[in-house]
Amino acid sequence: MTSNNTLRDRINVVKHDSENRFVGLKANGGDALVYFPIGYRLSETDEEIRRDILKLFDILNEFKDKKEGSITEKKYEESHDVEFPINAYLEIIRYYLENGYYTEVEPVYKTREKGKIDWSRTIKQQKPLLSLNRNNCTYSPIYTLFTVKQSTPNENNEITRIHQHCVRISFERVGWIFTSFMPPKAGGPFDDKRFLSILRTKLANTNNDNKKRLFQSMIDIIESIDEDEHGNKFHFGTNSFENVWEGLIDKAFGTEEKIEYYPKACWILSDGERSQPSHPLQPDSIMCANDSEDNYCYFVLDAKYYQYGDSNNKKDLPQNADINKQITYAENIEINKKINPNNIYNAFLIPFNNENEEKFPSDKPFFNIGAAVSEWKKNEKNYEYIQGILVDTKFLMDSYRSKSTENKMKLANTIECACKENRDRLRNSN
Fold first, then answer.
1. Which of 26, 151, 214, 420 has the greatest number of CB atoms lying within 10 Å of its CB?
2. Per DSSP, which regions of 155-283 are E strands?
């Protein structure tokens, strides 16, 4: 898989008018391409793009084991899942760029006047001079030449050939992220069963962490590739980035104790038996923030990976069921946690690109688009106005791990100000 394309040529951002919803790395018999989520703002330089790609891979890896957010890797011609070990490919490439091909070293013994002396071999192989000890009339051996031990790389070692195969495969798939250079094809047949046997033996007999990581990476790659052409069709990513979006929002802003805020229900049967439903309603995130020193506020956040931030089309906004669920979540907090309703807010968080001024004139990470209200409520409480907040995708992907208090307060202030503005606007319009 070779190409003269620049790194930027291999990057796409999912658009609202595209049938493709995939986010991640994909190759289908040609050049591999990386797809970023809705609203992502592409960088300009190769160095920045490279960081963006690796960051995307880290995010997909981090959230791929979530119950409802697994990452799908499938062979195109087959129905069963296969693992695409992106970290293994990156490990092989990094090791090669820093160290070249992996080689074992084997001892070589030579006759020298100095060096690392192997006394056992010296005694057996070298002829000493005899020196007379006049005190007791005995002779002592004196060696002028020694058998010394040297180490030399064994270029023909099988483990080196295995590494050569893995390096070539890794560069064919994802090497373009780092460089346009393509290492030569490895010599000899690709014997996956023999390679795996050798590598597992090596892995079991080393205590060196760097070697362990390298051997395991080679094992992961060999186990994942097709036997015929090392797989020109592969992908690592997801068609359901909404699950990842929820994870990003929750990690950046949510409290870890959100289970306390789940609305619960039960059945009380005619025989008096009490039964809990198996799946309680679960808000995406609950954010807690201090509005002031003596005013603690709660924010029910619904992460919506919807197209509105790219399309600016009303049909791409959250609809009735989502609106009413948000009110239920907030009402549960008011009643069961005995919280002042003025301190409870609701918001949908939707991705957008804050540099797309044609659709949304904002250079800030958060942007208010309005509020949703229910027709079955009097809309007298803050949480009965569900704020629509656009969140800059790149900002979230860059900052979610920090769990920044400053970012939480920026979001909290944006929601509170939006709530006041929208309540006043809607009241004046009635």
1. 214
2. 233-238, 267-268, 274-275
Q: How many CB atoms neighbour CB 332 within 10 A?
A: 18
313 neighbors 17 (Cβ within 8 angstroms): no
Quick: pLDDT tens for 342-391: 999 999 999 999 988 788 888 899 999 999 998 888 888 999 999 999 99
Q: Where is pLDDT greater, at 153 or 101?
A: 101
Alpha helices in 118-229 (DSSP H): 119-125, 158-174, 192-204, 209-224
CB of 186 closer than 8 Å to CB of 164: yes
CB-CB neighbours of 367 under 10 Å: 20
What is the distance between the alpha carbons of residues 221 and 186, in angstroms, rounded to a whole number? 15
Q: 23-28 and 233-238: which strand pairing? A: antiparallel
Instruction: State the first-to-last Cα distance of the chain, in angstroms, to the nearest integer.
Output: 63
CA nearest to 242, candidates 403, 368, 370, 66: 66
Q: pLDDT per residue over 378-388, tens digit each?
A: 888 999 999 99
CA distance 381 to 372: 13
Which contiguous run of DSSP H or E holds residue 266?
none
Q: Which of 404, 255, 221 is nearest to 213 (CA)?
A: 221
Q: HSE of 76 in the Cβ direction (CA atoms, 13 Å)? A: 9
Nearest-angstrom CA–CA distance, 199 and 158: 10
Average pLDDT, the chain: 85
As to burial, measured by CB atoms within 10 angstroms (0-12 exposed, 13-18 middle, 19+ buried), residue 9 is: exposed
- In this prediction, residue 4 carries a pLDDT of 55
| pLDDT winner (highest mean) among 67-71, 104-108, 179-183 | 179-183
127-142 pLDDT per residue, tens: 887 776 767 677 777 7
pTM to 2 decimal places = 0.80
Tokens of 267: 């059945």
Q: What is the CA radius of gyration of the chain?
A: 32
